[in-house]
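> call design_seq(struct)
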């Protein structure tokens, strides 16, 4: 089975669930991938991340995934 990866900007809900949106060439949202808090690794809101797509669709009807790499940090310094 071939593993599929996508890249995007991580957004977080108030409950800690992550979301990465896939945009088409026109900049419109094509799809949103849901990331369970346990699979965020060290990803923070605004980070550019690489996500491994999971084969199963969650009950919410959204595809799910797991952050496998932080490509770029939005913030480099925290107080």
């Amino acid at each position: 089975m071939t593993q599929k990866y996508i890249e995007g900007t991580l957004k977080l809900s108030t409950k800690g669930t992550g979301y990465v949106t896939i945009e088409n060439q026109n900049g419109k949202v094509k799809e949103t991938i849901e990331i369970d808090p346990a699979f965020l690794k060290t990803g923070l809101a605004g980070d550019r991340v690489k996500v491994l797509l999971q084969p199963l669709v969650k009950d919410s009807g959204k595809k799910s995934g797991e952050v496998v790499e932080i490509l770029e940090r939005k913030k480099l310094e925290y107080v």
